[in-house]
Design brief:
single chain; alpha/beta; Rossmann fold; 2 domains; four-stranded parallel beta sheet; three-stranded mixed beta sheet; 12 helices; 7 strands; about 10% strand
């Protein structure tokens, strides 16, 4: 197994070595952090531009952690400001919402490629993502984005193991998709709703929950935590704290999902419709 991972890792380094000057689309997550680290190791800091998209859909805590990590790696970090919130297709929150978001981001990065003469834009897409529902992959294809991790056939677990070997703090970090992914399809994306989710999830983390989602269903908040933590959250004192705070945020109803935490649960209805 280790030999297989080492082979994939070498393939990744070979792929990156084909370029001289690259942009890494960076979020601070497991995949893009690992890709940034390896790109810097192979090409040197001066040849890697780390771009993070700053928007309402990026959780405040995630942004702060991403910036801190990039600085610790010595990365040349630049904030970019894709304007997906001005796109009515994105705001309408269809089931391919991610396509419109990534189109805005990649269009912004493509301008930098052209103006500053970079070779390519790297994304942190891994091999597992290719089998998932990822509308953003279409946008990547349209903008000639290169996905070295997927090309090297590296899975999420492979990346976590290699990240641990490289000493990256993201090795065991829970997946943290953008805040818009918490808003039920068909319910308009607004800065106010994104702030509700951001504050609600931050509150739960302060209470000691690490892996969680707060799904936004207009006046109803649906909380997902791992099944073995449901009982803890349902205890009267803690439950009352959560209920009171969520109502302060503007939710009228607060539910605890008995199926527990699962990444991508917002897509379950799409799968049922198939």
């Amino acid at each position: 197994m280790q030999q297989d991972i080492d082979s994939k890792y070498q393939m990744l380094k070979d792929i990156i070595s084909q370029y001289s000057k690259v942009i890494v689309a960076y979020s601070g997550g497991v995949d893009s952090s690992f890709l940034l680290k390896v790109s810097i190791d192979i090409l040197g800091t001066e040849n890697v531009l780390c771009c993070i998209g700053k928007s309402d859909s990026l959780a405040t805590s995630e942004y702060e952690l991403a910036v801190e990590l990039a600085k610790s790696l010595g990365a040349n970090l630049r904030e970019v400001f894709p304007n997906e919130m001005a796109n009515p297709n994105y705001l309408a929150n269809p089931n391919n919402r991610c396509y419109y978001c990534k189109t805005e981001l990649y269009s912004t990065l493509t301008k930098i490629v052209q103006e500053e003469h970079y070779d390519v834009i790297f994304s942190g897409t891994n091999e597992d993502d290719l089998d998932d529902y990822r509308p953003g992959l279409k946008a990547a294809s349209e903008h000639a984005i290169v996905s070295p991790l997927a090309a090297a056939k590296l899975s999420k677990q492979d990346i976590r193991e290699l990240s641990a070997e490289l000493g990256l703090p993201t090795a065991s970090k829970p997946a943290q998709p953008c805040l818009s992914s918490r808003v039920a399809y068909g319910l308009d994306i607004t800065p106010e709703r994104l702030k509700q989710v951001d504050k609600a999830e931050a509150f739960l983390r302060e209470l000691g929950f690490k892996e969680l989602r707060v799904r936004h269903h207009d006046t109803l908040a649906r909380i997902e935590v791992p099944i073995d933590q449901i009982q803890k959250l349902a205890e009267p004192e803690l439950r009352n704290k959560v209920t009171a705070y969520f109502k302060e945020l503007g939710f009228n109803y607060i539910s605890l999902d008995l199926d527990g935490f699962r990444s991508g649960s917002g897509n379950e209805l799409l799968q049922i419709k198939k």
